[in-house]
Amino acid sequence: MEILGLLDHLESVVLDSPKVPFTKKIIADEEKFLQVIDKIRLVIQSPDLAKGTIIVRGEKAARGVEDETESKAMEVMEQAYKMAKEIREGADKYADEVLANLEATSTRILRTVKAGRERLEKTTQAGAAK
Question: Which domain of life does this protein belong to (predicted)?
Fold first, then answer.
């Protein structure tokens, strides 16, 4: 019989015992109580219970390690997301700077081309007028 069953049996011994009128006391059968207590002692001392206790403790320890590992994994993921965001923001800023320089350079080149075409047109018109 397992320990919870024995405790249930002990409880039924208490509940089934005769009551002392006008009190919360019972008249208990000492022998029944001692028999159940002896059985509980035997179960507690049994190697199977010790194994079960060790297994339960091991499972609790494993859950603790699992929870800790999961927590650390979440921290690593959060750091990775943060770093990825910073890298994206840095890449976007760099791309914007490169495009701004390209735009400025293109604008200067376009002005130079327009000025050259205007000079060429003036030169062509002046040469045609001669």
Answer: Bacteria
